[in-house]
Amino acid sequence: MSAARPKACVSWSSGKDSAFALWEARRAGALDIVAVLTTVNETHARVAMHGVRDALLDRQVAALGLPCLKVSIPSPCPNEIYEARMREATERLRQDGVTHMVFGDLFLEDIRAWREERLREADMTGVYPLWARDTAALARDMIDCGLVAHLTCIDPRRLDRSFAGRRFDAALLGDLPADVDPCGENGEFHTVVTAGPMFSAPIPVSVGEVIERDGFVFADVIPG
User: What domain range is 122 assigned to?
Assistant: First the structure.
C-alpha cells in the first residue's frame, strides 16, 4: 500500500506564476494540493498588490476546484500585522494536516530566504516548481500551454502604463523593453489568470478602467 502524499497549499497571488506553479506541482504528482491561500486587501476587497477583484478571485477558486484561505490585511499593511495574520493562517493549515506550501517564485533569493524562515517557524516545507528556470523560456511555456492572463498592475517607473490591461501573450513579450523581465519577476508588472490547464473552464473577462494609485497603475479586470 503506497504512502499518502503530503498535503500542500499553494500561495495563490491570482497571477500567472502561482497558477503555473500549481499546475506544475499537480503534474509532478508528489503532493496532494488541497487548498490555496491568498492575501486580500480588506479596504478595497481586492487581491493584495495585484488589484484583482474578490469576485474574480472567487471565480478562479471555483475553476480550480480548491478551497481558498483568504487572509485579510489592511492597506497599508505594517509588516508585524502581515506576519501575525500569516502565522494564524499557517497554523490553521497545519491543523488541517498541510505540511507543504507551493510558491511561484522564480529567482529572487531574498524573498525565498524570507519565506523559508517563516516556513521553519510554522514547521512547513516550501516547494518552488519554477525556481531558476529561464524566464524568457518560462513565459513562452506559459503561453504555449494555453494560460491566459492580463496585466493588472504596472510599476510605471519600470514599464509604460500603456501595458496595463494587455494580455500576456507573444505580442506583449515582443513589446517589452529589454530591461524588463519577461515574467515581471522584478516587480515590473503583475497579472491575473483567467484560463489555462489549471482551471476546469475559462473565465470570461473584460478590461475596464485604468487608474493610478499609490504609485502603481492598475487595470480593472472584470469577470463576465
Answer: 7-223
